[in-house]
Amino acid sequence: MGQFIGSFLLFITAIIWGLAFTAQSTAAESIGSFTFNTARCILAAFFLMTIILSRKTFYSVRKKEITDAKPFFCKENITGGILCGVTLFMGMNLQQFGIAAYPPDAASSGRAGFLTATYVVMIPIAQRLTGKKLQLPVIIAVIGCIFGMYLLCMSGGFNGIYTGDILVLGCALAYTAYIFAVDRCAGLDGLTVSCIQFFVCGIMCAIGTLLTEKPDISVLLNAAVPILYTGILSSGVGYTLQIIGQKTAEPAVASIVMSLESVFAALFGWLILGEILSTRELIGCALVFISVIMAQIPDFVKVTKNKSERM
Fold first, then answer.
1. Quick check: 285 and 277 in contact, CB under 8 A?
2. How many C-beta neighbours within 10 Å does residue 308 have?
3. Distance between the two ends of the chain, CA-based, in angstroms?
């Protein structure tokens, strides 16, 4: 039952994050990328701060566990939050700048969603560089992902690659580093680390805003809905559900469920923004998605085998 609940929470998170690409595409039309990310990160940080300070009330049945938790500003949480915040800053801004760089006729939500999801394939490649052997399904997944990106991003040959494609692929690389940063924070208080990471990311984005953009209150008001959605739902609620869901869902299963984010990004881009992918691009999206799933097969098989042995 716990596995089902965890997977369901992660499925909801994938929907929330998939819809966030639509919100980001809408915001890119009226607000600078640094300004947008500053607002969403600071909003997310205060949202999570409220949850953290209210945990004794919300989880009274776990009062002892909460009382025994480390202080909010302990060294471990601050270090972990800074590490995650810096890598999140790179991924989040490369993604938003990439979405903003797409021309009006490009299906920016769908393309960005699928290209961002390639970090799932990049992770085993990065592990190979540290000495871990790549298994056959992963190798096939890498080849399929590369071919899928070719169909998705290069319909016009090398001259048809959008600047946004390059930036979003850079975002996937940054999110690969972010996953490893989060992995180093295992055992720390997830909400606290997440809250600190958003403060760190927000401050760095604010510096970028002051140096390169000139926001005013009218600009923020014009993008109020996307900011509220990405700040509270996508960042605050999404990250919280991910933390809760992964406590009961196996990592391999969690990765597969979370990869549905790319599918929902394309779906909501079509339903809400009227974005249309060509047949070639749809085939590319399908290959990327299948490759993302295939990259998880070795871990999924390992988890299933371990469960069988325990039974």
1. yes
2. 8
3. 17
Contact present, 52 and 72 (Cβ < 8 Å): yes
Give the other-Cβ count within 10 Å of 188's Cβ: 20
Distance of CA 49 to CAs 53, 72, 121, 231, Å?
A: 6, 10, 33, 13
pTM: 0.79
What is the block-wise mean pLDDT of the chain (311 residues), using blocks of 10 residues? 70 89 89 94 93 70 51 79 94 94 84 82 77 74 77 61 90 88 78 91 96 88 92 86 67 64 83 82 82 70 60 56
**Which residues lie below 8 Å from residue 75, measured CB to CB, with a gap of 6+?**
none
Structure tokens at 5: 């609940």
- Provide the 8-state DSSP code for 160: G
CA neighbor of 48 nearest in space, from 163, 184, 180, 192: 192
* Sequence-separated (6 or more) residues with CB below 8 Å from residue 304: none
Q: What is the identity of the amino acid at 128?
A: R
CA quadruple 233, 175, 186, 230: dihedral, nearest 10: -10
Q: How far apart are CA 268 and CA 110, in angstroms?
A: 8
Residue type, 163: T
User: Which are the contacts of 151, defined by CB distance < 8 A and separation ≥ 6?
Assistant: 280, 281, 283, 284, 287
Domain boundaries, the chain: 2-131+159-275
